[in-house]
Amino acid sequence: MKDKILQALRDSRALVRDQIEYERCTHSGHYAEDDFDCQICEFGFECQWLYRNDEFVSLERRSADSLLESLEFAIIYIDSSIERWGHDRRACRCDACCWLRNSQRLRDELQKNTD
Ligand SMILES: [Zn+2]
Questions:
Q1: d(CA 6, CA 22)
Q2: pLDDT at residue 55, rounded to an integer
Q3: CB atoms closer than 10 angstroms to residue 5
Q4: CA of residue 113 to ligand 1 center, whole Å
Q5: 3-state DSSP call for residue 49?
């Protein structure tokens, strides 16, 4: 089950990353915790999330709960992007919409198991 969360998180990274305008970033997308620019950047939230969920930060060692929390953020984020784009979540076949449907199903399954 943990593998499925990891896979969903990996896939979501690309979707989140696609939405950040890196050409305006002075760190070329590398979140700098102590830089004020990063704290006020409009993509700060996304960037921090990417930073905390970096594939090199060894997702494997984190607890299932903490992974689920990250997945929840990705779901909310992708869901609001889709809302903005005006896609039909239930029928659209783009990467983001497919990811959202699969991840919501995965999250619901996981929550059922922990209840
Ligand atoms: Zn779509």
A1: 25
A2: 64
A3: 20
A4: 29
A5: helix
Place of tokens 């709960």: 65
Amino acid at 95: D
pLDDT tens digits for range 68-92: 888 998 999 999 999 999 999 999 9
For 79, which DSSP code? H
CA distance 38 to 48: 9
Query: Tokens representing 72?
Result: 């929840």
Distance 107 CA to ligand 1 centre (A): 19
State the distance from the centre of ligand 1 to the C-alpha of 25, rounded, in angstroms. Answer: 27
SS3 content of the chain, % helix, strand, coil (to 5): 70, 0, 30
Task: Read off the pTM.
Answer: 0.79
